[in-house]
Write a structure and sequence with these properties.
There is one protein chain. With about 350 residues, this protein is an alpha/beta fold. The chain folds into 3 domains: about 1-40, Orthogonal Bundle (434 Repressor (Amino-terminal Domain)), CATH 1.10.260.40; about 50-150 and about 285-315, Response regulator (Rossmann fold), CATH 3.40.50; about 155-285 and about 320-330, Response regulator (Rossmann fold, 3-Layer(aba) Sandwich), CATH 3.40.50. It has 14 helices and 12 strands. Strands 2-1-3-4-5-11 form a 6-stranded parallel β-sheet, sandwiched between helices. It has a 6-stranded mixed β-sheet with strand order 7-6-8-9-10-12, with helices on both faces. It is elongated.
Length: about 350
């Protein structure tokens, strides 16, 4: 195999064992030959020799939200390319299940775990970090040598979304959050409030609705907003599943999107671009998140990794404008774009 790849036996060994000193182009050549000849490394033998299993643990919140299967796929692709297997589990937001899942991972001697749940109890974090074991968290975690953090810049994308709606003429903008027990949900809500305040726009208390990060929660939030005396012209949602629920709730009414109401999501799941209308959303790239998670785990596992001393990875967000946002209802541009029937309805 080394001869076919044009490299030394040592290079093949380092590649198979995931040692980071191998140049990427050489590693790709070796893995190409491995796939070509159908070679299957003996992971148990490798673990005995190296003291490492070459298995990465990945914990996600749920599989029903399309964001997480997309994240799992990207993480697995990257890990396998770099010589690691993946042990995957979902918590369904249950603390006991999370503990049991991580315990099973430890029993399998995984080299490290990325906990990509966007919300985990402080007590559970403390119990996990007591083990001298590489862990990666999203947003927050204790400042310890074995902990690395993926910092999502929620404010960046949400600020773009609010400015986009304000530039179109919206002043009455509501926000549907996720469960406020989750740190990430609070961070997204606070980013929305800060962006509104920056533009001098007030947010009435009734325009802040706590959701569940599900389509059903989005429908219920939409019903609450529709019951208000003054229905907002724009709705920003804490994730795309909520936004899809809001779209569905509005579809049952005489408030078409975007002629009467503009809707913005968060995540940019694959489904967002195929909604009717295609959903304007804040992109948090699954690929960037998965890449950072794999890099952070390897930095904690491999002493010679070039990022071994790095503690934080920044995850950017950005607005992706599609067709679920437009001028606010009743404004001259919206009346110009609206159908004659819609113009008559607005004039009443």
């Amino acid at each position: 195999m080394a001869r076919r790849a044009g490299v030394s036996i040592a290079t093949v060994s380092r590649t198979v064992n995931g040692i980071s000193t191998v140049a990427p182009e050489l590693a790709e050549r070796v893995w190409g030959i491995i796939r070509e000849v159908g070679y299957v490394p003996n992971t148990q033998a490798r673990a005995l020799v190296s003291g490492r299993s070459h298995i990465l643990g990945l914990v996600v919140s749920e599989i029903t939200n399309p964001f997480f299967p997309e994240l799992v796929q990207e993480f697995e692709n990257l890990a396998v390319e770099q010589g690691y297997e993946v042990f995957i589990g979902s918590t369904n937001h249950d603390t006991a299940r999370t503990e049991a899942l991580i315990r099973r991972m430890l029993q399998r001697s995984v080299d490290g775990v990325a906990i990509m749940t966007f919300g985990i109890e402080e007590g559970l974090i403390q119990r996990l970090v007591e083990r001298a074991f590489p862990l990666v968290f999203v947003d927050a975690g204790p400042d310890l040598p074995n902990i690395r953090i993926l910092k999502v810049n929620y404010g960046e994308g949400i600020r773009e979304a609010v400015q986009h709606l304000a530039a179109l003429g919206h002043r009455q903008i509501a926000f549907v959050s996720g469960p406020l027990l989750m740190r990430s949900a609070v961070a997204r809500r606070d980013a929305f409030l800060a962006a509104m305040a920056e533009l001098g726009l007030k947010v009435p208390a009734e325009h802040l609705v706590e959701g569940t990060h599900t389509m059903e929660g989005g429908i219920r939030a939409c019903e609450r907003l529709l019951a208000l005396k003054e229905f907002p012209t724009g709705i920003v949602c804490s994730n795309d599943m909520t936004a899809i629920g809001v779209l569905h709730g509005l579809h049952r009414t005489t408030h078409p999107v975007p002629l009467d109401v503009s809707v913005v999501g968060f995540d940019d799941i694959h489904l967002a671009q195929f909604m009717l209308p295609p959903l304007t959303t804040i992109q948090m790239s699954c690929k960037q998140l998965a890449t950072a998670a794999v890099q952070a785990l390897r930095a904690g596992i491999e002493p010679d990794h070039p990022q071994a001393q790095q503690k934080e990875w920044q995850i950017p967000t950005k607005l992706v404008v599609r067709q679920s946002t437009s001028f606010p209802r009743g404004s001259l541009p919206s009346l110009t774009k609206a159908s004659p029937a819609a113009r008559r309805r607005t004039a009443k």
